[in-house]
């Protein structure tokens, strides 16, 4: 009926369930995936450990869940989500040694822009090697013509990156 408000408003102030848009599982960077997941929890107002734990389990692919089956089948009484998160990151994230190895040997410019290469190098670095070494590694992967021009300048990394984008390499 037009004057009846029973369907639109409830006297009950509790919410039975909150919808969460879970990010697609991203094995290549679990730390960032958990940041996205926790942002969704914050947007939905989810603070309860059990709810976070259950949402995380529902989003992780089955091949990865096997590695934490002990936690899933016999969850701890407290901090379920935090323990699951730490274990997944510990088991499936790239080690610091392999990140440094990739930084020193593995990355090449290829068909990406130099600024994209620098972004990838910074993601691997995590403040381990320092800015002067990172600058040297980055410049060493640029074409010789760009290296010659940029080596003559004493700009910081941000300045060199901006300048490099103006050069035709």
TrEMBL record:
Checking Pfam families in the record gives:
DUF7041 (PF23055)
Source species = Araneus ventricosus (Orbweaver spider)
Superkingdom of the source species: Eukaryota
* Protein name, per record: DUF7041 domain-containing protein
The DUF7041 domain is annotated at 22-105
